[in-house]
Amino acid sequence: MIKNIDFSFLVLPKFNIKYDKDVYPPVIKTEDYAEVKLKLPENYYFDYEDGEVVSKNQLLKIQFNPGIKLLNGYFISEIKDNEFKVSLSLIIPIIKWEIKSPQLNLTDQSRVKEIWHEDLYNQEEAQLAINNIDRFDFDNADLILNNDQQKIRSKKLGNKLIFDLMRFADDIKNSNNSVQEISLKTGNDNVYDLFKIRTKWEIINPSVKYRKEENIVKIGWQQLGRDHGKNIILWNKKSKEKIFSEEINNNNKLIVNLKKKILPNQYRLQFKEKDTWNSGEAKYPADNTLNVFDLTIGDKKDFIAVIKDKGLVITKVEDENGDKFPLNYDYKITEIRDASKLEFENEERYEGNLIICNKKDNNLQPEKLEYNPVSFYYKFENSVLSLFVDREKDGFTYCKKCQKLFWDTIDKNHSEYKHSKYHILAVRYYVDYNRISEELK
Question: How high is the pLDDT of residue 348?
């Protein structure tokens, strides 16, 4: 017995699809987008769920995130005032990868992902597969490490390319790089980034806030990778004195109640991974050390209040080439105040009295500069004086031989003329507080 069957169907006379790329690599940023063009016959149009239609004529353009599996929407036709609507899904030709191992199971990945090395290599096997290679124009490819530093040839298995990631293990473990980049290189020399392997724990975006009234320090940060406990240490950058050291585990913020108040100054913040094999005293970290950050605590108003109260001492000078030189004498600037005369409107210039003391003889009476007051610009961010001149607006000469500053004219009759070949013009002066105290008034 035949029953009546009622159904409708749609015949599409001509339908062209063109992507803006033959192959879409895994997406790095979420805002990356791709484009597909559809050439439609008359009285046909599309309504898409996953993309943004940027033109609605016979040549339809749709922008979409290439990380999606399918571009879903509806094909719509209007025939004799009747609307026919049929669902349609377009497969995106994007490279998708997967890793299968005892501890890590990543499938159907279409984004550049960062993987912690212990999750991948703390095991005996790790295999990478590139799926659905019939969509692309390559049957084989190489997996490359850090821009062709090392490579693995693919093995084809059905509709997949297979790679043994364990062959990269030694190179990755012995590398000094924080992150190792894994890419796919096809026969036509196109390179597509797949994922990254992080081998070093790294701190980013640290923040430090000091509340003078409560005498507490608040520290926040973000981290990449994984640690097994860490110490957070704050150092005074000038004296290299340790302010505090706190041990912390799984957290991204720390509040420290200080025993003593700290002055506005330059500090060095260190995040140090806990070392179970070495429990010795922490040492001041060298420049450019991983997870070490230089910062300033206090604003300009705080710094100015302190230098007016305590004065400054010049610790070293710098020439126009950026070379720095020490001093055998203490050059102390006292009674610091706002400059009485300003050369330019709204400039923030300061003046004070310069006193010179011999470091080798504490009993020596200080020598007071006869051309006081001196004046200068003060950059609190790095504790540097510039345009440092005496009352007559003369700069200072530095002798590299005796490590001393001169403000007199060095002529043939001057006692230090014999050192004239060692004389340079100092252009920047590094300073510290004159009388460093643990508490502000």
Answer: 85
What's the CA gap between 95 and 126, in Å, rounded? 19
Render pLDDT for 414-441 as a digit per residue (tens, 0 to 9): 566 677 788 888 899 999 998 644 333 3
Q: What is the per-residue pLDDT for 417?
A: 62
Residue boundaries of the structural domains of the chain: 16-91, 97-198, 206-297, 302-433
What's residue 10's pLDDT? 59
> pLDDT at position 11, please?
63
Structure tokens at 376: 């200068």
CATH code that applies to domain 206-297: 2.60.40
97-198: CATH, from 3.40.50, 2.60.40, 3.30.1380, 1.10.287: 2.60.40
- pLDDT of the residue at 363: 42
Per-residue model confidence (pLDDT) at position 114: 92
pTM, entire model: 0.76
Res 304: pLDDT: 93
Residue ranges of the chain whose pLDDT lies below 50 = 363-364, 436-441
